[in-house]
Amino acid sequence: MRRNLTAHAFLIGALVCFAVFSWYPMVREFGLAFQKTESGHTRWVGLDNLTTVVNDPAFWQAWRNTALFTVLALLFGFAVPFVAALVINEFRHGQAYLRLLVYLPVMLPPVASVLLFKYLYDPGYGLLNEVLRFLHLPEQQWLQDADLSMLSVVIAATWMNMGGAALIYLAALQNIPGELYEAAELDGAGLLRKIWYVTIPQTRLILSLMLLMQVIATMQVFVEPFLLTGGAGPEGSTTTVVYLIYQYAFNFNNYGAAAALGLLLLVLLAGFSGAYARLSRADDE
């Protein structure tokens, strides 16, 4: 015990931090989801908060927008970092600089990144519209158009967050034995065939784990639409589930409804994670 006293002290400190800042808020949310506070008095209301949330016209729109963001973010945010890792892995010199270049957006404060994209998307003097004018193409209202606002948010979010995933993919690629690629080349495999038959199977575990993590992260998107479009966006086109939770809690002072919606999101993500883990385990067997 004396020998391990320091280790136990560090473990207890970590457990206390988790209990205070992670576990207690989760337990508290379960209670708030079935309570309502009025005039300083808290009472149990059963499923009333859940009924209030489901009957809100913004409820289904928020879920549709969140699902759309998740799909678009996976198309861009899942493929782009993997392709970037493949390109960096082909360089024999300067990989350290390329890794820094890819990871640099992650090190920038989110507010600074958002201000950069607000400048790019500005309908008057924004760089994207300047490029369109130079090419004699019609200018776009990137954040003011309900049809383009979500795509614009996805592009910004992909650029801001792709660095970490790209480095994880790069580490996985560098662990693939070179003999496998040499054997594929002897069999006459080209670049695409080597990626399909060697790279992807050898990184399948990392790819599946990153897919699960990205689905969970994108379903909880808040920062990018909140800072770029004010949260709701034109005609509510960027209203997400987490932004709706924020509205219930801090705009409407309805913490019970916010907790109920958060609980719904938790159940959905937990169910998806469990099903995904079960399917992955069955596939491995």
TrEMBL record:
Record-linked InterPro entries: ABC_transporter_permease, MetI-like, MetI-like_sf
ABC transmembrane type-1 domain mapped to chain residues: 63-276
Secretion signal, residue range per the UniProt entry: none
CDD domains named in the record: TM_PBP2
Main location: membrane
Membrane topology label: Multi-pass membrane protein
Keywords: Cell membrane, Membrane, Transmembrane, Transmembrane helix, Transport
Family matches, as Pfam families: BPD_transp_1 (PF00528)
Localization, UniProt: Cell membrane
UniProt superkingdom: Bacteria
Membrane spanning residue stretches: 7-26, 67-88, 100-121, 148-172, 203-223, 255-277
PANTHER family with a match to the protein in the record: ABC TRANSPORTER PERMEASE PROTEIN, DIACETYLCHITOBIOSE UPTAKE SYSTEM PERMEASE PROTEIN NGCF
Protein family membership: Belongs to the binding-protein-dependent transport system permease family.
Descriptive protein name: Sugar ABC transporter permease
Source organism of this protein record: Streptomyces galbus
Native organism taxonomy: Bacteria, Bacillati, Actinomycetota, Actinomycetes, Kitasatosporales
